[in-house]
Every structure is written in structure tokens, then in C-alpha cells.
Amino acid sequence: MLKSIRKWWNYIGTKLGMQLEASADPKVQLEQAITDAREQHRLLTEQAANVIANQKQLEFRLDRAIDEYQKANASAGQALKLADQARTAGNAEEAARYEQAAEAFANRIITLERDIEDLKQSYLSATQASARAREAVNQNSAALQKKLAERESLLSQLDQAKMQEQMNAAMRQLTAVAGDDGPTLDEVRTKIERRLATAQATSDLTGVNVDASMLAVEQAQQHAEAQARLGEIRTQLGLLTPGDAAAPAVTVSRAEQPAIGPGEAG
């Protein structure tokens, strides 16, 4: 039962992981990867700094031990000289004190020699570790710079991919069959062409397309009839037509009038 539950839990985790991977933004994932790489480089740098600092501390201790060793050697030699001078002067007690001091310095010298030898070995190991740490930091720094350059390249490719996807979506919208949100361009074109074809067919059947010359003849006939009717109205009103008004008037004098005979009067 426990095995089945664990198996089902692993299945759920894997499925959720796949869904997250499919819906995750590549740009965010890329930034996460760069952030992780920077964090790893920071931790590596801190570790390398600790290794190098340990080497520096051993170097300080070794230098200090060597200084103490040199001072102890000088002090031991000085104590032996003083002891020899006291012995020559016949002061055995003072010579014995200087001899004890020289022996103490000699013991200090022996201890310092062992410490110096141990410090040399530790310093050598620390130096090698420090060199490896520096090399690791340099290599990781180069790898991080390479990842940063790859990030810029991938971001550029991602922008190009997004632009291409938008262009593809626009083309699909223009050439798609039928959509749920609205008609496509092809559907609208087909509808307009159908209406135009129907209108032209109806026009052919009902004789809407009249010859242009026939229309001109009808318009000329209507104009002539209108002018004739205007002439009749002018005559009834005693008006002259525009053409008659423009002609000059002719007057006849009384001398030129013909004589009327007696039989013609009245």
C-alpha cells in the first residue's frame, strides 16, 4: 500500500512538473538559470577566499616562527658567551645560570624547528590548494561569462521566435477557415462576391442596364416637348420668344403706305 502511494505521489509530481515546464516562460527560466550560476560562482569564490586566507595565515605563522627561531639562536649564542665569560672570571654560579638560559633557548630552538617544519608542510599544501582554488574560480568565471553571452543570444532568439509566432498567428487569422470569434477575410470576401453576383444577375433579368444612346434620345425628346409647351404659354401671354425679341423692329412711314380708294374705304 505504501509503495502504491509513493508511486502515485511520484506520478503526480512528475505530471505537475511537466505541466509547469510546458507553461513556464523561457525568459524567466533563463534568468533563473543565470541567477543559479551566479550564486554558485559566489559560493565558489567565498570558498576559494577561505582557502587563500588559510594560506596567508600559515605564511604569517611561518614567517613569525622563523623570526623567533633566529632570535632564539642569537639568544642561545649570547647566553653561551656570557657563561664563558663568567666562568673565565671565576664566577661559577653566574656561569651556571647562563648555561641554564642557553639550554632553555636550545629547547626553544628545537621546538621552533619542529613547528617550522610542520608549518612548511602545511604552507606547501595550502599553497597548492590556493592555486587550485584560484584556477577553479577563474574557470567558473569564464563559464559564467559564457553563460551570460549565451543568455543574450538566447534572448535574441526568443524575441525572434515570439515575433515569428505573432506573424504566423496573424497569417492564420487571415487564411483560417472559420473562427468562433468572427468571420475571416475569406468568408467576408465570399459574402461580398455573392451579393455582387446576385445584384448583377437581377440587373440582367429586369433590364436595368439600358443602352446609353436610348437614354440620350429620350432625354432629347423630353427637352423638345418642354420647349414646345413653353412656346404655347408665351403665345397665350403675348410674350415674344427669346429669338423674336432679338430681331430689329421695321417701321413704315405714312407716305409709303398704299392709298385707299373710295371703294376700299370702310
Mind explaining what this structure looks like?
The chain has helices spanning 2-23, 26-88, 92-175, 185-206, 212-237, 242-246. Helices cover 83% and strands 0% of the residues. It is built from six helices and no strands. The protein has a domain at 2-175: Helix Hairpins, CATH 1.10.287.620. With 266 residues, the protein is an all-alpha fold. Mean pLDDT is 79; it is low at 249-266. It is rod-shaped.
Percent helix, as a range, is over 70%
Quaternary form? single chain
The biggest beta sheet reads: none
Please identify, by name, the CATH architecture of the domain at 2-175. Answer: Orthogonal Bundle
Rg (C-alpha, Å): 62 Å
Give the class-level CATH name of the domain at 2-175: Mainly Alpha
Helix tally? 6
Would you count the extended β strands for me? Answer: 0
What proportion of the residues form beta strands (DSSP E)?
A: under 5%
> Which sequence of SSEs, written as H and E, runs from N to C?
HHHHHH
Backbone structural class:
mainly alpha
CATH topology of the domain at 2-175: Helix Hairpins
Question: What's the pLDDT, averaged over the residues?
Answer: 79
Shape: rod-shaped
N- to C-terminal distance? 153 Å
Uncertain segments: 249-266
| CATH homology group of the domain at 2-175 | Helix Hairpins
